[in-house]
Here is the input.
Amino acid sequence: MFTWFTISLRNIVKNGRRSLVTVLAIALGYAAINLFQGYVHSTYEGLTTAAIKGEGLGHLTIFKKGYLEQGKLHPERYQFTRDEAELIIQVVRKQPDVQLVTPRLSVSGIISNGRNSTIFIAQGLVPRDDREIRGDIRKITTFDGRYLADNERSGVVIGAELAAMLDLTVGSDAVVLSNTYTGMANALDAKVIGIFDTGASATNDKMVLMTFRHAQDLVDYTGAERLVVLLRNGKNGNASAEAAARLGALLAAEGFDVEIRTWKDLSVFYSQVKNMFDMIFLFIFIIVLVIVVMSVVNTMSMSVMERTREIGTLRALGLKRRSVKSLFATEGALLGLLGSGAGCMLFFAVYGAIAAAQPTYIPPGSSSPVPLRVDLVWPALARSIAFMSLLSLLAAFVPARRSARMTVVDALGHI
Amino acid sequence: MNILEFHEVTKDYRLGETTVSALRGVDLAVGEGEFIAVLGASGSGKSTLLNLAGAIDDPTTGEVRIRDRDAAGLTDNEKAELRSRSIGFIFQNFNLLSVLTALENVMLSLQIRGSRTAIARQEAAQRLDEVGLADYLHHRPDKLSGGQRQRVAIARALVTRPSLILADEPTANLDHVTAQSIIDLMKELNEKEGVTFLFSTHDQRLISEVKRVVRIDDGRIAQ
Here is the structure.
């Protein structure tokens, strides 16, 4: 084996220019795949955090059965009563992997500064629980003022563009108007205590955060629309799905007719972005795959052609066909390995440059610039080395097979 | 005992629409320890005969027996095994691997047979010493003269201790002095170690040194 390795390596060095082109093609492919993968990984991590913490979705959301289809039309029928909500919370809270379960109530209506008004969508939440889900909101977005306190009565936190639209600042008074579940109009005072950037232009001009009690008063309902669950170490999508299935079965056994959605099910933006990036990654991957395979096949074909007499000599000396294949396959794998090594260096050079320059960009649908980050995904970097080497080995196998099938006499007589 | 036998061997090649008969019913027996020159004009069938003797080609009809085994009846792997254990090849153009040193080229024959690297290195160095190249172990072929290259090729052929060495025009690409030294070396190995040599040549000096001459004319043994 050592001999074949030596022969392969020396032939690569001997055909330096040709090998260099192939190694560079593999290196560029390796770096491109891993830089994009690192960027995508960073984006997914960011989107995951944005969904679970930023949007406050938690890991799981428990709805009353049928709410997702009929809940907007008949809220009182498809939302939890106070008793139901309390009983479910008691059951769920006992589960060892559950860190927190908290009620939520969505409200929409009109918000006014006394002169002008516009629509709003609000989340009624328990401030203490929301702080546990989001962490300190002031650390994940631009924030002015203070966040909701547990004993807050009329204080609200509103989106930055909504504040600008109504000329509201921290300390301003406003009025929120909505329909109760019985169809009556209801207006309540609201005091702007905080202004924040939601991160999405679609919600930045209408988002309002208020206490759960404040939202209940606005729609005159004592129950909860949904229950949000935060899992311990449950960021992983599969863990969330497994927990959802387990909790669903548990609640069904307790006689509750509910349906549970994971944060991935509810964060449409995450799914859309992930689908788009997955498709782009596949596209890039296929291009790289074709370039690497063609490059290695070309190099190895030329090598086989030039070394036909050498193959004949080796066969005459007693080398078996499969060993001839191994010889060229080893050379292909070595090209892959060298290319991956060079690609690794290129990756770290670009990675370092990005980390130093810290460029930012505004993604579609975002209201503020985000940093361009590339994550170091060690398993992916290692997997790519193995993949590139294997791919090069397989690509070399085609010309290697051709060379092994040649008769010894024909190979020796080759000029 | 014969280590090589040809029985009514023919070999035809297809060249487009034409069939060329390289050998036409050859009968030949080569005994152990013989030193045989195969003579003939270009295209007479010398190389074809050597190819068949080395189990790197199959006859169209007839039988080639190497160490009492019908070569045509062997699988590809069995032929490779036979070549690796019993036959050594010396080529007109030396056919050394350019990326390997003289020592590595000679070691290769043993490594193909599965010998351990340390043993292969020791035996290869010894063979190179015997052919007068002890000081050139780590030279690559492009740093060696034609004669030195052919000596490396001879060492490579000998290192597996084969019972038969086939040489196709071994002195054709060498100058007078070098050719003579190669002839002397081959003869010495034949006499001292009893290695059987079967080689094609045009070289009159080589012919005068051999014990037996086989002449081929138009695919037939003439004498």
In short: Strands of chain B lie at 2-15, 18-31, 35-39, 61-66, 69-70, 87-90, 164-168, 196-200, 212-217, 220-221.
